Amino acid sequence: MTHISTGLGVGAFLFLLASQVLIMVASSCFCCGKPLNPGGSRALAVVLFIICWVFFFIAEVCLLAGSVRNAYHTKYRTVFTEIPPSCQKIRKGVFAAGAAFVLFTGIVSEFYYINLSRARDRFQPYGGETGIGMGTYK
Fold first, then answer.
1. What kind and span of H or E run contains 131?
2. Of 24, 73, 101, 130, which residue is the least packed, with the fewest Cβ within 10 Å?
3. CA-CA distance, 74 to 71, in Å (whole number)?
4. pTM of structure
5. Which pLDDT score is estimated for 123?
6. Spatial separation of the C-alpha atoms in residues 25 and 90, rounded to whole Å
């Protein structure tokens, strides 16, 4: 691992954060907009919303942990000791797991947005009279 991998890990962390904010703003995060049609698309959108945030959190933790650990083992190690960095490495799977969960977050976010759009587009409010009709009685 080198100094550059720390920067790339932090960059990936920030880009993933920006993409998550973008998808939540674009979908109004269940807060605003037209009501959702009850049904399978809404239920699936809720499940995918939760999975999206779980995958996002795991990816962010992996990327941040890998970057911090790598920075400790390379760039910032001489700040605390006079010994130059050794060949110690973080576990190879930390950045790989982060990258995998970034991919999973992107895929799940796409399916979340599609199902949320379907649930919003299918909602048809009742346009008729909502009260009891009072016609003439014969």
1. none
2. 130
3. 5
4. 0.71
5. 54
6. 35
Measured distance CA(73)–CA(54) in Å, rounded: 28
How far is the C-alpha of 23 from the C-alpha of 12, rounded, in Å?
16
Cα separation of 37 and 97, whole Å? 36
- Write the pLDDT tens digit of every residue in 19-36: 988 988 888 766 676 777
Report which listed range, 42-46, 76-80, 89-93, 127-131, is most confident: 42-46
- Which region holds residue 68: left if phi is over 0, alpha if psi is between -120 and 50, else beta? alpha
Phi (first) and psi of residue 110, to 5 degrees: -65, -45
pLDDT at position 85 is 46
Contact partners, residue 75, CB within 8 Å, separation at least 6: 3, 6
pLDDT digits (tens, 9 = 90+) for 43-52: 898 899 899 9
φ/ψ of residue 74, rounded to 5: -120, -80
Please indicate whether residue 119 or residue 70 has the higher confidence score (pLDDT).
119
C-alpha pair distances (Å), 119 with each of 107, 124, 138: 19, 10, 45
